Amino acid sequence: MSATMHEICRASAGSGKTHQLTGRYLRLLAEGVDPSTVMASTFTRKAAGEILGRVLGRLARAAQHDKDRGELSKSLQMKLTQADCLRMLRQLADTLHRLAIGTLDSFFHRVAHSFALELQLPLQPMLIDERSAAAEQLRLTAIEAMLGEHDLPTLMDLLRRLDHNAKRSVTETIDGIVRDFHAAYRAAPDKAAWSALTVPPAVDDDQLQQLIAQLVETAWDFPDKRWHKAWDRLCTSILDRDWEAVALDSLIGRLISGEGYYNKPFPPDFAAALAPIVQQAGHALHERLANRTKGYHDLLQRFDQQDAALRRRRNLMLFSDVTYKLAHDLPRLGDDVLLEIYYRLDGRVRHMLLDEFQDTSHDQWTILEPVAQELTSDMTAERSFYCVGDAKQAIYGWRGGCAELFTHIEKELAGGSIYVSTLARSYRSSQVILDAVNRVFSDLSHNPVLSEYPAVTQNWDRRYDEHKAARDMPGYVRFETTAADLADDEPGNNDSDDDTDAVDNHWLCVARRIAEIHNADPARSIGVLVQRNSQIPLLLHELAKVNVQASGEGGYDIADDPAVAVMLSALLLADHPGHSAATFHVLHSPLAAVLGLSDDKPATVRRAGLAIRRRLIDEGYPAVIADWTRRVARYCDESHLQRLEQLAQLAERFEPATTLRCGDFVRFVQSSRVDFASAARVRLMTVHGAKGLGFDAVVLADLDSQMHLRRELLVDRASATSPVRAVFANPRKELLHLMPQVEQAAHRAEAEELNEELCTLYVAMTRARQGLYVMVRSMRRGLRKQSHARILLHALANLSEPPIEQKVLFEQGDPQWMKRDRTASPPSAAAPQPAIQLKLPRSKAAARSLTRVSPSGLHHGGQVAAADLLRLEAHGGMEHGTQVHERFAKLSFVDDEGDDEVKAELADYIRHPAIHQALCRADTIELWRERPFAVRDGDRLLSGVFDRVTFQPGGRAVIIDYKTDTQPDAERYRPQLQAYRRALAKLRGLDESAITCLLLFVGCGEVVEV
User: Fold this and answer.
1) CA 355, CA 25: separation in Å to the nearest integer?
2) How distant is the alpha carbon of residue 894 from its chain centre?
3) Under a CB-based contact definition with an 8 Å cutoff, are residues 252 and 737 in contact?
4) Nearest in space to 890 (alpha carbons), one of 877, 902, 875, 900
5) Per-residue b/e over 701-731, b at no fewer than 16 CB within 10 Å?
6) How many helices (H) and strands (E) does the chain have?
7) By the 8 A CB rule, do 657 and 135 touch?
8) DSSP 841
């Protein structure tokens, strides 16, 4: 098959998706395609690096070894010579800087950078990850600004509409809404979508009162006392006008469904008499839900405005912002601009290869679709489209992934005639593992746990192909329950029946099973997969008890560690000496003696807090935390010391952004995630973190929890690939029967959530190569009605309930598979491959890119003394300088009216005559403040930010740069100002001699011309 045929490849787990994609890439090269015109994209930098590594590795080995070259020729279905391989390898090396092998985000960033002016993007923004501590702090700052903008009555009205829970603080409530729903707002910012709920008419109030009186007084001929009791309850709710209670009443529910009550029909005219009541309940519930939905929109809109303004001021962008702007702002530029952009894009991308297509989002496909349509409209060999993925592994719906795009592109691209291939042979797993996978997923429609969702299960049955192993190797599957309580003589035993003890016993059983597998062959890789990151520290602790070293991966909150929590309490105490909980926490810990906290008297607490603040100012967070750690080390075990070491590392990351409030650092720690990673062969991670990985043995130990099938916010679309048409707050499930418009959206959302849950279970099971161990809690703990464990219980063991005792429920294969395995050596025992050394002709290619320099880095010849880098007090100076620049950036001119608050902040500086004079309007005709720039300066790119530039008649300009040095040293900054002068001259076409450069030493009140 030619590499230029348009193709969609549906590839099951372990079937070699990456191998197929890299083979396609190499086939294009072999057919003479310029590699710079091939876009090969996936979702993570690690996966992109793997694609590039495989392309280069396969070519390099083929160029060196006849056997590898023969295998590559067979794979590409074309004869390759050593010269061919060397030519392609040389071609890749020469164009490495222009290769488009990377993540979709990196591709979108390159596109956006090319059209930055059209999209009004900042020239040099600082990009931050949405899940980073910096993004968390940015969000909280925007929320605080939003709260400060509105008066109390407005805020209380908004919270009332949102059914605010008084047990949570206002900030916590808003933060939760923003975290969960801001993406939905960005997908549909128009208020019309959030006002789409049709509210049925209300019953006239006078008429309603008469109806209620009539109803209550009517002597209905009910069959027995149970009917009378139910009627009395319903009457109470009607008289109280508690419409939610009315809607939830069993009599109303049976009436609407057409069923009788206790197997007896309703009295004649009963339904007609209650119809207005049902109508009024429906109206009240719809109105309440509509107000709540609009309240969400109002809050999110206000947050979005504050958030956008804050990011503009700080020159920050989230990684997702570029994708959002391309998807939503490009269409607003008009057809002419859009055609020009896609015409230029089409000239760069002639062949598109997309990996993990099931994880592509609506916004991402909105950007890619015009290019894909253009490529697939060409049936010659000049262009091609290829995507590979697996809808059964679509586990990223929570971040926008839309697996239904597979079906969409089959119909929409190439007029619906695009070639579709399927890969079902697994090169990863033993047939024993695959038999268990087939048993679970090939007949989901007959699994009673999923009987309420026939559309989802039938879709799985239709698209599921029986999995076959490509290699013959031993395997083993074991499905068992763990003991609810341990024997009296075993460690970890206790007499308590509470849930915490049962959970601990479960994890100890799991740890022992892992130890058994690991000790049988320590060289084997073991993946321990859980649903939540929070379970990993707990299991790491249990594994330490049985002497198993393990690596925890994925990013976890260390603030819950007891040793870390005490230190954070000490910092809170320093911020708030009246914080009684923090004081109690520290006072009853070994840290109290270190801090000199002998009692909880206010004077003692204030002294301790003041001492902490002084040390933080003098020494910095890393030094103080390191000292505290050394002094309490004897009270900590190894795991606690590791967490404290990670706390010190977070303190070093926080140093550049240090503020005077300890609470800022505490919030930074609470929002940061750290790994407990190591080189251990036992690796703990979430199922999402294990995507794309494989392990000799997999242990699934966290399948008991209820599957999350309910969304708090319903984003409704006509189809999975259509634009948002409506957004609804999700009411209680029991109320949906009165809201058919919302009920349909809720059912669609529930089906999508269930599909993702099934995908998660599929991914978890298919990570195993030869050993799969599933461990669930016994009946003592009980199983949720809808859980992964219960699905397996029915599919593998044909049971509806697990036994009370610890027991093996299902077993197949060879328990001694490690000893029987002769197909390959364990990964760690494999002989290392020698480095590939090739003698290639030297390339005469031009330099790849311009060297980027910043004017501020040019003083002292661009060198920084090591002593300056290591001085802790330097960080305070940097922070002070940043604050001064932020204040001056707000100032227009000192002699203009207004800016009173800004002038008050700068009073200590502008009182100096020279500073005051330099900041007067005079004959200024244009003013720049904090203006970023990037210009070519010879063979380098000069980029930076002008503090202040004023333009005057006659082509003259003044560059002003603020310095907080207490001792003026103009010569130190001369190279920087000269670079500014050259940059401004190029930007505005000015003569350099017409540009004046002034250094404003605001700390001492001097102005020096350079």
Assistant:
1) 12
2) 45
3) no
4) 902
5) bbbbeebebebebbbbbeeebeebebbbbbb
6) 38, 26
7) no
8) P
Give yes or no for residue 540 having a pLDDT over 80.
yes
Phi/psi at 930 (5° precision): 50, 55
- In 3-state terms, what secondary structure has residue 373? helix
Contact call for residues 445 and 33 (beta carbons, < 8 A):
no
Q: In terms of Cα–Cα distance, which of 803, 727, 199 is closest to 479?
A: 803
d(CA 145, CA 310): 9
The answer to whether residues 348 and 37 touch, using CB atoms and an 8 Å cutoff, is yes
Gap between the Cα atoms of 364 and 357, Å rounded: 11
Neighbours of 473 (CB within 10 A): 18
Nearby residues of 825 by Cβ (< 8 Å), 6 or more positions away: none
Of the candidates 426, 429, 396, the one whose C-alpha atom is nearest the C-alpha of residue 686 is 396
Q: Which of 555-559, 635-639, 831-835 has the lowest mean pLDDT?
A: 831-835
Contact 388, 21 (CB under 8 A): yes
Q: Is 529 exposed, middle or buried (0-12, 13-18, 19+ CB in 10 A)?
A: buried
Please check the confidence at residue 825 and state whether its pLDDT lies above 70: no
Q: Note the Cα 621 to chain centre separation in Å.
A: 28
* pTM greater than 0.85 (yes/no): no
Kindly report the average pLDDT of the chain as a whole number: 85
Report in angstroms the alpha-carbon separations of 508 from 544, 704, 762: 10, 16, 26
Confidence of residue 496 (pLDDT cuts 50, 70, 90): very low
Indicate the pairing of strand 995-1001 with strand 1006-1009.
antiparallel
In whole angstroms, how far apart are CA 93 and each of 49, 88, 799, 855?
15, 9, 59, 33
Residue in the block written with tokens 């006239």: 204
Name, in order, each residue with C-beta under 8 angstroms of 403's C-beta and a sequence gap of 6 or more. Answer: 358, 359, 389, 391, 394, 397, 755, 759
φ, ψ at 681 (rounded to 5°): -80, -15
Q: Is the pLDDT of residue 52 over 80?
A: yes
How many other CB atoms sit within 10 Å of the CB of residue 652?
A: 14
Burial letters 317-350, b for 16+ CB under 10 A, else e: bbbbbbbbbbbeebeeeeeeeeeebbeebeeebb
Output the CA torsion 539→541→544→548 (10° steps).
20
How crowded is residue 1008: how many other Cβ atoms within 10 Å of its Cβ? 17
CA distance 814 to 843: 55
Local structure of residue 329 (DSSP, 8 states) = T
The 10 Å CB-count burial string (b at 16+, else e) for 607-617 is: ebbeebbebbe
- Residue 136: per-residue pLDDT: 82
Which residues are within 8 A (CB) of 413 and not within 5 positions of it... i.e. 6 or more apart? 6, 8, 372, 373, 376, 385
CA distance 929 to 936: 22
Q: How many residues does the chain have?
A: 1010
Residue whose C-alpha is closest to residue 134's, from 262, 265, 310: 310
Q: How far is CA 690 from the centre of its chain?
A: 15
